[in-house]
Amino acid sequence: xxxRNPWDENWHATLDGKPVPLLHADYVMQGVAVPAGTHTLDLxxxxxxxxxxxxxxxTAWMLLLVxxxxxxRRTKPVRIEGVHVVLRPLAPPELDxxxxxWSSMPQGASPIxxxxxxxxxxxxxxxxxxxxxxDLAIEAEGRLIGQIGIYEPPSGALPExxxxxxxxxxxxxxxxxxxxxEAVRLLCDWLFRQKSxxxxxxxxxxxxxxxxxxxxxxxxxxxGTEVAxxxxxxLFALDRAAxxxxxxxxxxx
Length: 253
Prior knowledge:
single chain; 253 residues; alpha+beta; Aminopeptidase; 6 helices; rod-shaped; disordered C terminus
């Protein structure tokens, strides 16, 4: 039987469901030896390159899916829950409270308060890493009471694995109630355990006794001074080994 298809080795023939040779016919056409009688002839084209292409396409889609899941996990907003305090992203309705908090800070604590537009930009990406910076709200009793964040110091980039943070409790009525201490403890524990930090640092004014007390209670030790915008700050630091030893005893972690 002559088949008016150009002969190609990727064509396969079956006769009555059984494989049969596909022959050269009329030089360039296909032929199948068919005995007398009624029969069913099927021709199937199977190109190995198609299978390879499908495998490559499938693998590419799988890699894209894995990349998407990894990126989604990395960009998932940070939320850290404690006993009395929750660290979470700032919400747009909290912009006014955050802006007003800067006016209540001690003299010299922030020589250059950020503009409202700058705070709005930071709020839009709060809860996610931006370079090596992170802004989080401090929530207690179901309301916003302060802000804590990780920043690059004005003196320049920190070594890999070293992070410097700042913290504010907005209202004097909420200070001295342990909220700031718990917020700092939650952030430090998250940095050491989830981000593999080697060292955590914080700067404060020499006159800020309450802040120095918080850092001392958590095991921070004096690490010199630094100058930012013409103001001298005391620098305190805590390394991972000291944190692990302290947290294992005091917080059962």
